[in-house]
Structure formats: structure tokens, C-alpha cells
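Request: Not sure, any thoughts?
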Amino acid sequence: YEQVLQICRSIYGQTTAHPHIATSLNNLGIAWDHLSDYRKAISYLEQALQMNRIIYGQTSAHPEIASSLNNLGEVWCHLGDRRKAISFYEQALQMCRSIYGETTAHPHIATSLNNLGEAWNHLGDHRKAISYCEQ
């Protein structure tokens, strides 16, 4: 993934915001998360989120931004900061509902709801967990 990132930056520019660079940053973040280097994962995922917001708009709802938010939530959950994870998951859910519709059954919405349910379950608020999971 590091090589892909370097190639993308050499093609599009070291400081250019480009979807391929954002994807490479995201992939590196996920890989470091899987390797349990959560601080490195957060660094890459925050860069991906920032770049996606530059590309698609700071206040725009876009699937790539929602994905970045969800991925950051995952890493914060692995670090044990469930409240911070919930904040990212809620942002991802809100964005997904904005993109796909409030009442639309969509896999990205279901993922956000499931993640919120799991996080609340870990915090001991089982009713809230059930509420999210039942949606």
C-alpha cells in the first residue's frame, strides 16, 4: 500500500487531493488497524477523511466521506474509546441517511446502525444497542 501511495503521489502530485490518493490513505489506515497499530491507522484515516472532504466538499454528504468516518470509528472502538467511536459512527449514519434516504434499506446504513449497536452494547446501554440493531 505504501508503494501505491507513493506512485499515486508521484502521478497526481505530493500535495494534490485526489480520490486515488485518498483511497490509498484509507487502505493504509485499515491495514494498520488490522496490524493493531491504531495510532498509525488513525493518522492515515484522518488524512483520508481530510482529503475526501477537500475533494467532495467540507459539508457535502458523500459515500467516501461516510466510509472514512466509519473507519475512524472502528479504530477508536479498537482503542477502547467507545464514545469517540460513537461520534464517528453517528456522523457516518447521518451522512449515509442523507445520501441514501432516511427510510431506505441500504448496506452502508445497516453497517452504521450495527456499529452503533455494538458500541453502545460495550458501554452497557443495552436498550440503546437493541434500538440501533433493530433498525
Notes: The helical segments are 2-12, 19-34, 38-56, 63-78, 82-100, 107-122, 126-134. The chain has a mean pLDDT of 95. Residues 38-56 form the longest helix (19 residues).
